[in-house]
Write a sequence for this structure.
């Protein structure tokens, strides 16, 4: 990438950019997938010709299990409906009844061990891409990742039941502003087992969550 004139982003090691005159070209890499976008079609075509492997060109509709929709007014909407359904089917939750919240108030003192696989990583992936609304519930359930109990599995099942209702929902990034906003909150000594405090932070850009 450096030989092609690209510079590495200081904030993301897998993002590269190249600027010439008023044109910009960006390349995002993730394992064996990549995404190329730019302000000039000629620059994009020249870069694609440099690549020695098969590439797909055209409008961006899907990337890393994300559906990406570019609307006429300039906004961009993303969701993971298909990916979510695949996960629900894999863990036998596709026909589960939906719920309106990803976390409930029902708690149990029973600490029975759960020996099967608990799909923390799948839920975490959805929470970091298109469902920040489940982030707190996922992280709370994942505290017992190495030694889960039946209660932890029930927490994850509730997250999946919530996603069953919210599969078609996602994030919309509007075109009228690029203002970065940060929100934070804290719950002092709220964990009844450890009495640890909980802090949450949400960052939005163009009215859509980015972190």
């Amino acid at each position: 990438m450096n030989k092609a004139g690209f510079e590495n982003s200081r904030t993301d090691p897998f993002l590269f950019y190249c600027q010439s005159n008023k044109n910009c070209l960006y390349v995002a890499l993730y394992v064996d997938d990549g995404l190329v976008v730019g302000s000039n079609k000629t620059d994009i075509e020249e870069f694609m010709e440099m690549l020695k492997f098969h590439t797909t060109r055209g409008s961006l509709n899907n990337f890393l299990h994300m559906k990406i929709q570019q609307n006429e007014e300039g906004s961009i909407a993303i969701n993971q409906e298909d990916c979510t359904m695949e996960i629900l089917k894999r863990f036998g939750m596709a026909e589960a009844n939906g719920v309106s919240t990803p976390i409930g108030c029902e708690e149990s003192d029973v600490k029975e061990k759960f020996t099967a696989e608990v799909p923390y990583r799948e839920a975490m992936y959805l929470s970091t891409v298109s469902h920040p609304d489940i982030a707190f519930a996922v992280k709370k359930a994942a505290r017992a990742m190495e030694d889960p109990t039946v209660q932890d599995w029930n927490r994850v099942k509730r997250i999946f039941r919530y996603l069953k209702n919210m599969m078609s929902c996602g994030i919309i990034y509007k075109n009228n502003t690029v203002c970065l906003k940060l929100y934070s909150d804290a719950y002092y000594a709220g964990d009844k087992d450890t009495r640890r405090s909980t802090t949450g932070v949400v960052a939005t850009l163009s009215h859509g969550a980015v972190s």
Q: What stands out?
A: The chain has a mean pLDDT of 89. The longest strand covers residues 23-30. The chain has two domains: 7-58, 78-209. The chain has five helices and eleven strands.
